[in-house]
């Protein structure tokens, strides 16, 4: 029996018509090594009459992409990032049609927005203490009350990625306010306001038409003032078990409120960084806690969402050594491991999804597509 998996993507201009070609080429190479046929496709290329799809596989010998009509794979690895809601709806409709005509299944389910993930995690009493106070932003009046009570707040899009659209707003002195962060195009935001009304008007314009979360602001910065967090990648392996593939510190540029690599951040090994920041003994304790949380979170979320395949978990540590769960996503990037030259983690990060796919194909333990009404996700580089 031929094993096959299709990498589902959003189509772009060019040939082949998708971004992140080097990542998908690595997935194809991993498939060749594991005897799994891997190809990349867009649902828009599905032909219901023949039940085939135009797919692209990477020829590792010739180092070139090969375009070919393919029978539908039994398993789909969803790496689609939707630039708008219409693209999401068209993908969902096409996959429903595929599923109606052929036995299409997903490698793992997708998580919903940040708010629903936060609620799922907070239902676990072991995880709740590590979650910052968070509310849905329902009105600008709500933000005004937060600033009056707390003096500062952190706002982030419910469906955002790469640190786009995140804002730190705060009272800096009597009658004066500041806003730092990133706009929707990931450009740096650094503004000053002479009144609370002016600040609130600006926030209202920036958040209009999007669902935002209002969150307790955490001082997650190094001794030198650089924002940092910990990216943990957990994946299921070829035996169907969760494993901690790797962990990296992401350090932001000076003055940035985010540490995201796409915002100019850099990646480095976590333990030496933690030892320099907190001392040897505390660093060892923090590393154990980060590991424990990384393996607890997927078990908790599977209890709410069903089977998952991989998660990118962002964890923060404040200056008092408290660990915080910042956010979790089910379509994680892998750039951090390449940037810090962690070859073992970089290789495993690519091979694990294919090894897990082979495990599912061999055991015939597949799941039907699940399409909650999500807001579109911006593109994320691997």
From TrEMBL:
Residues 124-361 form the ATP-grasp domain. SUPFAM superfamilies: Glutathione synthetase ATP-binding domain-like. The keyword ATP-binding applies. It comes from the Bacteria. Keywords: ATP-binding, Nucleotide-binding. One of its GO terms (molecular function) is ATP binding. This is YheC/YheD family protein. It comes from Paenibacillus contaminans.
